[in-house]
Amino acid sequence: MQELETQLNVLRETHALLSQHFDQLLSFDAMLIEANQSFNMSSSHSRIIFHVIFELSKDFFPNFNYNSITQRFIRSVILFAEQAERDSTKSSITMLYGSKVRHPLSLSLSLSLSLSLSLSLSLSLSLSLSLSLSLSPMLAHSRAETNTSTNLRELELCRLSTRRMPLSLTERAVTSVSSTCDRCTESLDETTFRSWSTSASRRSISRSAPC
Amino acid sequence: MLFVQFILYPLDIYNDVAQRAISVLNRRFLFDEIEAEVNLCFDQLIYKLSDQVYSFFKVQAASSYLENSLKSNLELKTTGRLNAGKTRYPVLLQLRHMQLLGRSIDLNHLLGQRMNSLLRKNIVNAIGRFESQDIAHIIVRVPHSSCVRKEKLDSLIARCICINNAGARDAIERVA
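YS: structure for the whole thing
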């Protein structure tokens, strides 16, 4: 997100600079909407949001555990979903930040920008996703599941039974979060969430919103 | 590209050659040959030039996001790259009537068309790059660790999650 945001900001700035000299440029927002495929009036789908949802449901929900000591999400040892295939796109340097390393000793623009980006990326990783609050019941749920299934047989059973689960869990989590978001504007307290998540049974997750 | 503003001067050679072929040598086929070559050459020129112009403005834009200390250090090593003067490309871009083999060419218009397509291509590329990355690259900014409890979801994730339930279900069905 941060890289995309930076790139789009740079592009917006580029567009602003270019439009001082060219008068037939289309508006940046129109181009962004076109590229993002978010021109549907009835829904807020777009390529970016679709990818976020895809990553959350296919990779993040089934495969990540929340480590409460270090307060971050880590990829769990036991994976409940296969690794999703992603298209690999090679983009030229002009398409990234517009410059390339010319001299081995000189730090060039793209290098320094990506360097600062990766630094900030690791910083924000340590701060963990802010999603940790809103989605913690779901994750605590999956964590409890991995903890309880100690022996191998149970684990296998669990794996079999959860083959369909990530999707339904996602759906439930999304509906529950959105319903809380509708009712209360503030994000929920962590302790409330914990007690809620441990006490709530699997079926009543979506119903028993604490607010 | 220090003297890029003079890049169109060599094209005057074609003008002179064409004039000589027509009025002194009186050879029509020679003029046709020259014209064909000019067409090829000018297409290549526009292609290269638009890439250069685009990259120039993109460097300008990207460098505005760098810190000043870093920028001044970079400026020492890459002289005139981050802060090029206004005499380089902007001079070229003001050209609206260029005479080439008796035709009037609007260079600004031609480059503007290419800029449009380059910008669009670049946005698609940026989103495509985002799509090729995993969850670790989807990071929501957290203002401060002590504010975590009170802070609201980042706008995009909030938009992603707080879309109405029907929309979310529909999206997840599409994912499935």
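YS: worth flagging: The beta strands of chain A are 64-67, 72-75.
IM: good catch. Also The longest strand of chain A covers residues 64-67.
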